[in-house]
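>> Question from a student workshop board

For tomorrow's exercise we were told to take the sequence and the ligand below, predict the bound structure, and bring the output to class. My setup keeps failing. Could a helper post the expected result so I can at least see what it should look like? The ligand is phenylalanine.
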Amino acid sequence: MSNVRGEFSSRFGFIMAAAGSAVGLGNIWGFPTQTASNGGAAFVLAYLVLAFCLAYPALMAELVIGRHGQANAVSSLQKLTTSPWQKKFAFFVGFGGIICAGLILSFYAIVAGWMFSATIEPITAITSMDNATLWLSEQSLTRDIIFTGLFIVLTVLIISKGVENGIEKWSKRLMPALLGILFALIAYVMTQEGAVTGLKAYLVPDFSSILNPELLVNALGQAFFSLSLGTSVMIIYGSYISKRENLVSLGAFVTLIDVFIAFVAGLLIIPAMYVAQAQGVEIFAADGSLLSEDTLVFQVLPALFDSMGDIGLFVGFAFFALMSIAALTSSISMLEAPVSYAVEKFALGRVQATWIIGALVSLVSLTILLNFAALFGFVVSITTKFGQPLLGMLCCVFVGWLWHRGKLLKEISEGCEQVEHTVFWKIWPWYIRFVCPVAIAAVFLNSL
Ligand code: PHE
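>> Workshop helper replied:
Here is what the output should look like for this input. Compare the format with yours to find the bug.
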């Protein structure tokens, strides 16, 4: 580590960490289910276009704010401002993002807890621990509290180790493991009956539905959630990138990996759904719509694993381990957002700050668990439908309208000297100024 503040030690380390944040339940679960309920391949095509044309420019805005500021999200944004009202605005956007990240973590940890217990279940089943298997398979408050807590403690342990020894080290281990498991599962599912029908539904688009406004809105929302935008996470990760690195290509790498993994996860989940259907599991209603969008992962897929016989236990274990790993590399980025702020603002030790914030997030998770019906959907909506698009849009406004163009160019040029003559610089500043805010506002208004 080159200075007192943490910094990613290598290009590969940053890419794994940022891609680890981006790749999560949103890719492996959210993207395939959205694809299945929004008409298959047409959604995939819209998603690809929007991810590269709108989400990537917005990601670049957040990364460049962070790398320029070399500080937590609030201070980084405030460094771009000159007047007192702008400083307040910067606080609103930066702190809003931090709160948003903390709230996302509080529900994400609950879902990740389900993934954890589903990972352990095949192990207790193989070892004939029948009581434990029954306890793990039935939803109960005690089970959820224990596994949510476990997930938060694991996240805290990684974050308390800092940037290089915590985030970077674990992302470099977990991300390749995730890819390995994903490909092994795809190879298996492809040998099963029904997989080819699923593949066709996934890859052959029905062009007539591609301009459907709801499909476009869903695709853009999915792209924003998937790239962790509007949560100040990418501002923080940007602040740990060295000035020697080429930000434009780093951002492009992260977007490519995120989109690639979402696409590959679709290659697994969509054919798996058709395989399950071929084995008699009900997936689609008579009108072709998906039967149980939210519960699919816990009902349909385990039914598929069961029907495979003994090997199903291994496949089930691998699948849920994959989900847990993806969730963990995302949750560490969510926790880093408030922790970096607390460390720099209140001069707390990292370990102390991490445990305090971990405890606060656990309290929110507990409150959600105790009032599940009223709070879970509510917290998901306010963060992902309102918070993320709104704050993501405001970051674009910051870079597009408040930052002096010459200074912005100077920051982007560090590590990328010729940037002035590239297509990126000819298009991106305009995108950030006009196209991104308008398009994101459209998504935001639609979600109202
Ligand atoms: N991008 C993550 C996913 O796809 C979720 C996430 C959202 C992570 C916001 C960090 C901040 O699951």
